[in-house]
Amino acid sequence: MGKVALLPQKDVVVELFVYQKVNSKTNKRMAYWSFFIPFFESIYTKRVRIVGRKCKNSPNVKVHGVPFRVTEMGMTTKGQARCYISMRQPDGSILHGEGVSKLVTAKSMKAEAVIKAAENIIWKNRGQVLEWLRAGRLQKATPTLLLLVLPEESVTSIYGKNDERRRELVRCAAKLLPPLPELQEKMEAVTFRAVEKVAVNRGEDDALKRALNRLYDEAVAQGILQENNVKKLLVTVRSEGEKADKNINQRALSLEEMRMLTALCIEGMQTDIRYASVLLHLTTGVKTGELCGLNIDNLMRYKDAVYIEIGAKSVQNRGKVAEWKPYERESGKLRRIPCTPLAQAALSVLLKPRLEAGAKVDAPLIVDENRRRWDVLKLRAFEKELLQKVVPEYAKISRTDVIRTSFEHYCRAVCGMSDGQTQKILGCKAAQTYEEWYADYSARIALMTLDAQLRRYHNLLTEKEDRWKVAMHLHLRVKRGASVKIQTEHGVKIKKI
Known about the structure:
Blueprint: E1 2-9, E2 12-18, H1 24-51, E3 56-57, E4 61-63, E5 66-73, E6 82-87, E7 101-104, H2 112-124, H3 126-135, H4 143-149, H5 152-159, H6 164-176, H7 180-185, H8 187-198, H9 202-221, H10 240-245, H11 255-268, H12 273-284, H13 288-292, E8 299-302, E9 305-310, E10 312-315, E11 323-326, E12 335-338, H14 341-356, H15 376-390, H16 402-413, H17 419-426, H18 433-438, H19 444-462
Helix pairs in contact: 5-9, 6-8, 6-9, 8-9, 11-12, 12-14, 12-16
């Protein structure tokens, strides 16, 4: 009798007894079994390795401030590692109940699948986690945890509806914020530091501030934070009362204030061309970037119509050099704006020194003392100084570009322009298909019409008396020897025929 021993695993011995007889039939049988022994050995060894492996418990780890126990399980038959995670009490003790644990296919707690599973467990037990937060039992709770446990309608108001970009901004900012107890003490400093790192431009900056303000307000309402210390500093959401009050707040300069600003520009541009730039801005309603982006060849004259052609703008962010960017051909911002005699006076002051200096036609129209294109930020700062002289309560006006806002107001209220005309002259997208695709505002007759309408407004700016005049401009072609007689029941005054 022979004896064969297999050692597939430590401390596991598999004995195989084979009875031998000295004959050919037995030898064939032994040869048959000797062929399958390695196969059975591999299967048994693998099973012993899987079943006999011990589970490894890791110490409690915190996910957004909530403790979790992670148990590294044995591998599956396919060779996949598994982890068993379970949420714990704030002190680390066992938490009983349904939906507090889950088996995840992952190697360790650092795996993304484990983090998502833990967040899902927190969300399912958000009522319990909220009680812990109100009681102050989670000292390492992060602002990200608030986004998981707050009521669904509150989280929707924080993120905004159908705004995935804002969701990403809020999540990134929340990761940079310290735990809630430390956040309450250093809210102002850490909040603005997070906003500065995450937000790219001004629009995203304001949106992120509003979202964080809502987050802090909801935390205060739930009894998690004591107070929103930066509510006055962040861009807040207007209440219903504030929405109603904005209808009676001043958002455009009055006619008297516009006259004062015009007189200040006319007087000042005799010695300083910056005043002429502000006057051109006031009479055309262009953006500050478009004003600084004007070149000499943008000044055009078509018979008796003088206009400027807007085809580019100067873009400048704070702390960066300005860039000149042309508009696309498909853009509705490409337009022609007629220049009344008041606007032509500003253009002549700006153009004269440029021609005397031998500037080329593609050179900038408005330059600084070094003959470089005037910065947008410098223009805005100079306009702010003038506005503060004319309007002491300038800071209370809600719009930043109050000159452009006032121009739009008077285009509608005084000039009698339609919505399509106003949108076209301002470079805004037309609301109607006809205005956007079929109306030709670059034609001579259209420019003359807009010019006549703008003169109604500009004539009021240069008048000293505070009274309204009704004027009619007629362009007549009369044969030689013919006469024209105009008569109304109120009489008429004819200056020229």
